[in-house]
Design a protein that fits this description.
The strands form 9 sheets. Strands 2-3-1-4-5-11-6 form a 7-stranded mixed β-sheet, sandwiched between helices. Strands 20-19-22-15-14-23 form a 6-stranded antiparallel β-sheet. Strands 28, 33, 34, 35 and 36 form a 5-stranded antiparallel β-sheet that branches. It folds into 5 domains: 6-273, P-loop containing nucleotide triphosphate hydrolases (Rossmann fold, 3-Layer(aba) Sandwich), CATH 3.40.50.300; 294-384, Elongation Factor Tu (Ef-tu), domain 3; 402-470, Alpha-Beta Plaits, CATH 3.30.70.870; 477-590, 2-Layer Sandwich (Ribosomal Protein S5, domain 2); 594-676, Alpha-Beta Plaits, CATH 3.30.70.240. Helix 6 crosses helix 7 and helix 10 (414-427) packs across helix 11 (449-463). It is 27% helix and 32% strand. The model has no long low-confidence stretch (mean pLDDT 94). By secondary structure, it is α+β, with helices and mostly antiparallel strands. The structure holds guanosine-5'-diphosphate and magnesium ion (MG). Guanosine-5'-diphosphate binds next to helix 1.
């Protein structure tokens, strides 16, 4: 790969709905530019991007890959990003590293949910946008219909810069509206042809729209256009670049990644009109003083960069993918990581294309490359010149929406499982690990069931250890509703040292919502010797974690020790603890109930799904508290039992075609309705019986 400086670089994130052809499109570009002499196919697992074992196995993209393509004296640094929502986290870093976004739309499906999400993210990151309408070779596709749908959804800024000649199986070429040239064939067989006569008026109309859009980007151009009705090629180029940069113009180009038709004209348009990183300014802070600081994308600035992705490479170990934001970085340098407040030694610098690493003398401002084996650096961290430090805002990753309890399949492999998960977390910060304070389970949190399943498969594949994922246990609790007097008598006097402990305890509920345990010493007349009273309390406290109904922690219980008896020889701490346990077991007569965690849920959906959402929450024993309008969406505010919300992320996605989102926060505990409680108690009983049989 040749050396490129910022002016010659285009950093473009490739986003869009899953399976629209993002990975295949990049493969077609590599084929058209001779980087690969045979075009790989996702189905065959031999594309340049999608090289991870889990990707080739499932034929979908799972992690972001850098795929540079050299064309028209430019380097197009594409970053191929998964379209499936489970891997949404993979989008965050690349969005930060790019100046432009190529949103891939499948001609057969048109505007899909993933297209809307891609657009929203590109807007949020202020990226220049470009639509590639792919799969134009498929039967029954209609480019005009797709174009109309794009303009309908995203507005009149959407303008076709290229039109297809024929479509579906008849697709044979394209017309470049800016250059007013037509091309047929693909790659090495690409040739210029006259604009088909039957397309002339469509081409002229499209050109008018393009000119108007370009003119609309500045007063001067607008005036010139109104006066003369024409723009020079240069003015058109200036207007187009300005419009694409500020988002007032979003080009559309038709392609077929399968036949290669339209691939070169698309690459030409991306190289010509998408913004370069040159001269961009990035704001940060001076990590020492906290003062605001800034760098420009120029080679003569102090070095700084941001790590936007980390890979656990089987051979070189950790690979940090970074975007150089200012200055240059050569192998052998000493750099500073302000996030970790550590120096890092750079052995060599690499350029990446898929899994292929090519070492380079240096990385220059605006370019994307990789460093191996950094010790302290994670995704989102800044790297900079130690003499001129700066720290950029880190990269925010989506909150997890699903949790599973994770454990080692084989006893004794726990360490291997958790160190492997920690490595995978480095690669994918959208997974987190936590411990449930109630159930003591280790929870693996992620973006969806497929996401967690892939993590489990990677653990086995990359680190050779099997983990088990299970629905987490619901942290139920127990309490009592009635006051009882319970007696506990422990007597063993059969030869040898006898044991004797005898207590009378009044158990009563402390009151709604209490999680405490209260022990009241109401012993009079020394019926239970002072030194054994703490053992009674201890005996009770030791049993609280195991409730009398279904073995869940007992809360909100008051125990008043008011009577008992002892034996001068046989009484002991142990005997009174046992007596206390016997009394505690009698709480089954105190109308014990199960309590379950109730969560505050806020669901955000487009209008048309509101009815379904409300109905569904009611089915989950939920209560609707209210509805509000938020940013044009409907917000349903509700409360629902955690037990009914486990796979809500997956269900909401299928109910709303992934247009819905939700947050859930713990609210309080409430009594489990008796029908539901019966089932839980039975499950617990049968699990107990199974355990006894073992
Ligand atoms: N007919 C046709 N199929 C395509 C085209 N591009 C991609 N595909 C197929 O669409 C499927 C999804 O492609 P992929 O590149 O994995 O999509 P991604 O998920 O957006 O990266 C694969 O089966 C491809 O072979 C195209 O231009 N024409
Ligand atoms: Mg893909």
């Amino acid at each position: 790969m040749k050396d490129y400086r910022a002016e010659g670089i285009r950093n473009i994130v490739v986003i869009g709905h899953g399976s629209e052809g993002k990975t295949t499109l990049l493969e077609a570009m590599l084929f058209a530019t001779g980087v690969v002499d045979r075009q790989g196919r996702v189905e065959d697992g031999n594309t340049v991007s999608d090289f991870d074992a889990e990707e080739t196995r499932r034929h979908i993209s799972i992690s972001a890959d850098v795929v540079p393509v050299e064309f028209a004296k430019k380097k197009l640094n594409f970053i191929d990003v998964p379209g499936y929502f489970d891997f949404f986290g993979e989008m965050m870093g690349p969005l930060r590293a790019a100046e432009g976004a190529m949103i891939v739309v499948g001609a057969p499906s048109g505007v899909a949910v993933g297209t809307e999400k891609a657009w929203a993210q590109a807007e949020k990151h202020k990226l220049a946008k470009f639509f590639a309408v792919n799969q134009m070779d498929r039967e029954h596709v209609d480019f005009d219909k797709v174009l109309a749908a794009l303009r309908d959804k995203f507005g009149s800024s959407v303008v076709p810069l290229i039109l297809p000649i024929g479509q579906g199986p008849a697709l044979k070429g394209v017309v470049d509206i800016v250059a007013m040239k037509a091309f047929e064939g693909a790659g090495k067989t690409l040739k210029e042809v006259p604009i088909p006569a039957d397309m002339q008026s469509a081409v002229d109309d499209a050109r008018e729209i393009v000119k108007e859009a370009a003119a609309g980007t500045s007063e001067a151009l607008m005036e010139k256009f109104f006066e003369e009705g024409e723009l020079t090629d240069e003015e058109l180029l200036t207007g187009l670049s300005a419009g694409i940069l500020d988002g007032s113009l979003v080009p559309v180009a038709p392609v077929s990644s399968l036949t290669g038709v339209g691939i070169s004209p698309l690459m030409f348009a991306l190289a010509a009109y998408m913004p370069s990183p040159a001269g961009r300014r990035f704001a940060g802070t001076d990590p020492k003083s906290g003062a605001e600081a800034e760098r420009a994308v120029a080679d003569d600035q102090p070095f700084s960069a941001q790590v936007f992705k980390t890979l656990a490479d089987p051979f070189v170990g950790k690979l940090s993918l970074l975007k150089v934001l200012s200055g240059a970085l050569a192998g052998g340098s000493q750099i500073y990581n302000p996030n970790a407040d550590k120096q890092e030694k750079v052995s060599s610098v690499f350029l990446l294309r898929g899994k292929k690493q090519t070492s380079a003398d240096a990385l220059y401002a605006g370019d994307i490359g990789a460093l191996a084996k950094l010790q302290y650096t994670n995704t989102g961290d800044t790297l900079c010149d130690p003499a001129k430090p700066i720290q950029y805002p880190s990269i925010a990753f989506p909150q997890p929406s699903i949790s599973m309890a994770v454990s080692a399949k084989k006893a004794g492999e726990e360490d291997k499982v958790f160190s492997g998960l920690a490595r995978l977390q480095e690669e994918d910060p959208s997974i987190t690990l936590g411990k449930s304070a109630e159930t003591l389970e280790t929870l693996l949190n992620g973006q969806g069931e497929l996401h967690l399943e892939v993590v489990r498969a990677k653990l086995a594949g990359k680190f050779g250890v099997e983990a088990v994922l299970k629905d987490p246990r619901i942290p139920y609790r127990e309490t009592i509703r009635k006051t009882i007097q319970a007696e506990g008598r422990h007597k063993k006097q059969t030869g040898g040292h006898g044991q004797f402990g005898h207590v009378k305890i009044e158990f009563s509920p402390i009151g709604e919502g209490s999680t405490d345990f209260e022990f009241v010493d109401a012993v009079v007349g020394g019926v239970v010797p002072r030194n054994f009273i703490p053992s009674v309390e201890k005996g009770l406290r030791e049993n609280l974690p195991k409730g009398v109904l279904a073995g869940y922690p007992m809360v909100g219980l008051r125990a008043k020790l008011y009577d008992g008896s002892y034996h001068p020889v046989d009484s002991s701490e142990m005997a009174f603890k046992t007596a206390a346990r016997i009394a505690y077991k009698k709480c089954v007569d105190a109308s014990p109930v199960l309590l379950e965690p109730i969560y505050h849920v806020e669901v955000l959906v487009p209008d048309e799904y509101m009815g379904d959402i409300i109905g569904d929450i009611n089915k989950r024993r939920g209560r609707i508290l209210g509805m509000n309008q938020v940013d044009g969406l409907q917000q349903v505010v509700a409360e629902a039992p955690l037990a009914e919300m486990f796979k809500y992320a997956t269900d909401l996605r299928s109910m709303t075609q992934a247009r819905g989102s939700f947050t859930m926060t713990y609210e309080r505990y409430e009594e489990v309705p008796s029908m539901v409680a019966t089932k839980i108690i039975e499950t617990h009983k049968s699990a107990d019986e199974d355990e006894d049989e073992e």
